[in-house]
TrEMBL record:
InterPro entries: SecY, SecY/SEC61-alpha, SecY_CS, SecY_dom_sf. The lineage of its organism: Bacteria, Pseudomonadati, Rhodothermota, Rhodothermia, Rhodothermales. Belongs to the SecY/SEC61-alpha family. This is Protein translocase subunit SecY. The gene is secY. It comes from Rubrivirga litoralis. Component of the Sec protein translocase complex. Heterotrimer consisting of SecY, SecE and SecG subunits. The heterotrimers can form oligomers, although 1 heterotrimer is thought to be able to translocate proteins. Interacts with the ribosome. Interacts with SecDF, and other proteins may be involved. Interacts with SecA.
């Protein structure tokens, strides 16, 4: 505990780190305040009364509302949040795997990344405009009495304001990444989730009315959280031997190092990608409220505690874990870099065989990680069946817990990097956030 307090003091001593943290907190406050700004043409009091009359609004829209900090049910200008940007990123990355033009951009370094970012922004605008129409139709069907302007005018207002709101949130996230600390997009999602945690704990404690049962639930949540941290931090170390090289009068190499391959190399992105995919059927169904087929599809894929949703969500999580790992980790590039530096894996020939060896190991260790992530993703449905309130069950696993753990670890790692660069100890003297080795 003393080391944590000392690390907090050291953070405040470093001017650059202090400014980055304060800037990040300021941007997050702006985002939270903006989530309470209601769309034009809506009677906020009447909408609140309708929401209070139906407090058990759950399903996929309830989960979406969790990600945007409650702005979805409040009909705020940030009602769609950052999710259209995530969807656009998924589409661009999928195109990068099959379209030669996007593959070329990925190989062009910084210029290519800037072009991809620009295309992702354009895609975000298009996706937000489409989703805002569906949002307007859904809001008119469920809260029509709270809308005080004609339907066509309200739809136009939704398209303009929601698109502008999402673009502004995207800009805030990019500013955090550039001038703040941590990944801005992930932090914006996380802060919306955290906003619901105090109320969820209070409601669960009131519902249980038994301190012993409540402590058991908290203990189970703690164990699940530790399991997620363990899998997130887990690595497979491959020994790499470097040959001796003599440059002038100095000798280099001749040492054994390790190539760390993470069990969950994809991090938190697969769960975010999978969640974005799960929004698509319900969004399409909102355009066809009179179609029995689409209503059935929307109900089946919109019940986050239902069987069909859980099965589909599990499969998509496993798929995207492998997909994003294949994008994030390139065995061929690792093998080529190792060969240029005079390194080799004992018992494996450099070049193609090294690449195949790394790919085989990566495939094997990703399987348990993907299955675990998929299982944690559907834990809220299991917790709800065990009697946990839906609001608190969403923190029992699933997207909420994975995002909270992943984003927290990533942010702590960046803070610790600033501390170590200035010769301060990290958060723990016995180990770094990602495993300090002396």
């Amino acid at each position: 505990m003393a080391s944590v307090v000392e690390s907090a003091r050291n953070i405040w001593k470093i001017q650059e780190l202090r400014q980055r943290i304060l800037f990040t907190l300021g941007v997050l406050v702006v985002y939270r305040l903006g989530s309470y700004v209601t769309l034009p043409g809506i009677d906020a009091v009447a909408l609140q009364q309708l929401t209070d009359a139906n407090p058990n609004q759950g399903g996929l829209f309830g989960l979406f509302n969790l990600f945007v900090g409650g702005a979805f049910f409040r009909a705020g200008v940030f009602a769609l949040g950052i999710m259209p940007y995530i969807t656009a990123s998924i589409i661009v990355q999928l195109l990068g795997a099959v379209v030669p033009y996007f593959q070329k951009l990925q190989r062009e370094g910084e210029d290519g990344r800037r072009k991809i970012t620009q295309l992702t922004r354009y895609g975000t605008v298009a996706i937000t405009a489409l989703q805002s129409i569906g949002y307007a139709i859904n809001l008119q069907a469920t809260s029509g009495t709270a809308i005080v302007i004609p339907a066509w005018a309200f739809t136009l207002v939704c398209v303009i304001c929601l698109t502008a709101g999402t673009v502004f949130v995207m800009w805030l996230g990019e500013r955090i990444t550039e001038k703040g600390i941590g990944n801005g997009i992930s932090l914006i999602i996380m802060i919306g989730i955290i906003a619901f945690l105090p109320a969820a704990l209070a409601n669960q404690f009131t519902e249980v009315a038994n301190i012993f049962v409540f402590l058991i639930e908290l203990g189970a949540l703690f164990l699940v959280t530790m399991g997620v941290v363990f899998v997130t931090q887990g690595t497979r170390r491959i020994p790499v031997q470097y040959a001796k090289r003599v440059v002038g009068r100095k000798q280099y190499g001749g040492t054994t190092q390790y190539l760390p391959l993470r069990v969950n190399a994809a991090g938190v992105m697969p769960i975010i990608f999978a969640q974005s995919i799960m929004f698509i059927p319900s969004t399409i169904a909102a355009f066809f409220p009179d179609s029995a087929f689409w209503v059935g599809v929307g109900n089946a894929t919109g019940d986050i505690f239902g069987v069909w949703y859980s099965v589909l969500f599990f499969v998509i999580c496993v798929f995207f874990t492998y997909f994003y790992t294949a994008i994030a980790v390139n065995p061929q590039e690792m093998a080529d870099t190792m060969k240029r530096q005079g390194g080799f894996i004992p018992g494996v020939r450099p070049g193609r065989q090294t690449s195949e060896f790394i790919d085989t190991i990566l495939t094997r260790i990703t399987l348990p990680g993907a299955l675990f992530i998929g299982f944690v993703a559907i834990l809220p449905a299991i917790a709800a069946q065990a009697g946990v309130l839906p609001g608190f069950a969403q923190f029992f696993g699933g997207t909420s817990l994975l995002i909270l753990v992943g984003v927290t670890l990533d942010t702590l790692q960046q803070i610790e990097s600033h501390l170590l660069m200035r010769h301060y100890d990290g958060f723990m003297k016995t180990g770094r956030v990602r495993g300090r080795r002396r």
